[in-house]
Design goal:
The chain has 291 residues and is of the alpha/beta class. It has six helices and 15 strands.
Length: 291
């Protein structure tokens, strides 16, 4: 069988059978190149070599809270392939919630534990807070968040911390080295103009918050494009390969391409891939669709 040599990184080349052309990776010599693939993400990823994705940002279906064209969700098989294709030092951002009716399902934690058991390190557990959630509850506080599990294959190779302004800055007497006696000891120190954000990120949802792209809402569950962008900026660098194996309306792809990353999105639904294609193409982004 003829072999096709594809440049995956500037320093390395990998050979892939031409029968797997529908799942080949973007040409690394092309800037802002995206690829959308219709198919079962498990089967698609199985045709790839190991250790190719620098970052995955995805929000999988959970607890059957949405009808995704009736498709099933083989979580463990997807998780296993994601670990294999993630590069050493690469990161998986797994955005997921729980069914709350009848008591919390805790699906999110079960999935995180499984991902840890197969080799991912639980680098951080972050909160995606929804600023304007409409879902009130009669016997509990309004549910306004989802989990963002940041899982890494070894130590993360990249961390570009996002900053926020501090309330005050300059030199002042700062508490340090507080001992069991409870006495505050102070010394002159500098408060910086900026500090690293906390791991609770808040975003408005709905049109104008999640995105201004009306076509995206033809998909039943869209996460904020700023959420995707913030993770892409944090855990990857320009030229890196960003993956979303359940890409839906293409949010991760849009923000990856706009920030000079390569992107591969997979979805088993041809309708969702078409939504993503139209959305990305309308912005002038270079995207190829494979079926």
């Amino acid at each position: 069988m003829r072999q096709i040599e594809l440049g995956l990184r500037q320093e390395a080349h990998v050979k892939i059978d031409d029968t797997a052309c529908r799942s080949v990776l973007p040409n690394r010599s092309l800037q802002r190149k995206g690829r959308l693939i219709v198919g079962n993400c498990v089967d698609i990823m199985r045709s790839w070599p190991d250790d190719i994705a620098h970052l995955t940002v995805t929000s999988p279906p959970y607890d059957k809270l949405r009808d995704y064209k009736g498709y099933d969700f083989p979580f463990e098989k997807i998780a296993d392939e994601l670990f294999r294709v993630t590069a050493p030092g690469g990161v998986l951002v797994w955005v997921v919630g729980d069914r709350i009716n009848g008591g919390r399902s805790l699906t999110s934690f079960r999935q995180a534990i499984y991902l840890q058991e197969i080799g991912f390190s639980a680098h951080d557990i972050m909160i995606y807070q929804k600023k304007n959630t409409p879902f009130t509850r009669s016997n509990a506080y309004t549910n306004a968040y989802e989990m963002m599990f940041v899982l890494s294959k070894g130590k993360p190779a990249t961390f570009n911390p996002l900053k926020v302004p501090t309330q005050r800055h300059g030199y002042e007497m700062l508490t340090h080295n507080k001992l069991p006696d409870g006495i505050n000891k102070k010394k002159l120190g500098e408060l910086k103009k900026e500090k690293t954000r906390t791991n609770i990120w808040s975003y408005a949802v709905g049109l104008g918050g999640t995105t201004n792209d009306k076509i995206a809402f033809q998909h039943p569950a869209v996460f904020p494009e700023k959420l995707a962008e913030d993770h892409i900026l944090s855990w990857s660098n320009p030229g890196d390969l960003v993956l979303d194996p359940m890409c839906g309306s293409g949010t991760t792809g849009k923000m990856a391409l706009l920030n000079d990353r390569d992107f591969i999105g997979i979805d088993i639904s041809p309708e969702y891939i078409e939504i993503a294609r139209q959305r990305l193409s309308s912005l002038g982004l270079s995207v190829e669709t494979l079926q």
